[in-house]
Amino acid sequence: MQRRSNAYHISILAVLIAIVIVQNVVPFFGYIPILGLSLTTIHITVIIAAVVLGPKDGAIVGGAWGLIDWLRAFIAPTSALAPLVFTNPLVSVLPRILIGVVAGWVFIALKKHLKPALSLTFAGVAGSLTNTLLVLGLIGTLYRHAAAGFYQVDLSKLMPYLLGIIGTNGVPEAILAGILVPLIGGPLLRYRGHKQ
């Protein structure tokens, strides 16, 4: 019985990593352009891994996404900014690992006190904001002068500019995660509970 449970766990982990790879490769699947914005959906897969399999496996799936972003920054950058900042694993890999850690632990802490759907919503929002705040915060901290030049903004206006990106991209991504994580994660958790 334990062997079957481990095989199920590993197969779900492998499927989620495969989904992250597909989201990175297939246009408009992992990054959806809407009204001049590019909304990321890959973090939702990482958050689902964290709430269904736990923070450690969420970190593994997030790490897979971060490694793909890091490699792409060298060989096939997705933007002109990518070779400048995403070649640094502190910006490309670490925040993606922490999505899984934060979302998983938020879910574990809240599921004892809240309904499952609400716990999943908070975990989704927390994981999404972890990614946004860490990536942009690290860009603002580590690449302050380079990013100001790239964005063609006055250095004193860089932080307000990055905060604007949080408002235009980060908030919609957090709302999307707050909606989709319970819709996808809830049935997976029920099915996983049934399988064990």
From TrEMBL:
<feature type="transmembrane region" description="Helical">
    <location>
        <begin position="65"/>
        <end position="87"/>
    </location>
</feature>
<keyword id="KW-1133">Transmembrane helix</keyword>
<keyword id="KW-0472">Membrane</keyword>
<feature type="transmembrane region" description="Helical">
    <location>
        <begin position="32"/>
        <end position="53"/>
    </location>
</feature>
<dbReference type="Pfam" id="PF12822">
    <property type="entry name" value="ECF_trnsprt"/>
</dbReference>
<feature type="transmembrane region" description="Helical">
    <location>
        <begin position="161"/>
        <end position="189"/>
    </location>
</feature>
<dbReference type="InterPro" id="IPR024529">
    <property type="entry name" value="ECF_trnsprt_substrate-spec"/>
</dbReference>
<feature type="transmembrane region" description="Helical">
    <location>
        <begin position="117"/>
        <end position="141"/>
    </location>
</feature>
<keyword id="KW-0812">Transmembrane</keyword>
<feature type="transmembrane region" description="Helical">
    <location>
        <begin position="7"/>
        <end position="26"/>
    </location>
</feature>
<protein>
    <submittedName>
        <fullName>ECF transporter S component</fullName>
    </submittedName>
</protein>
<feature type="transmembrane region" description="Helical">
    <location>
        <begin position="93"/>
        <end position="110"/>
    </location>
</feature>
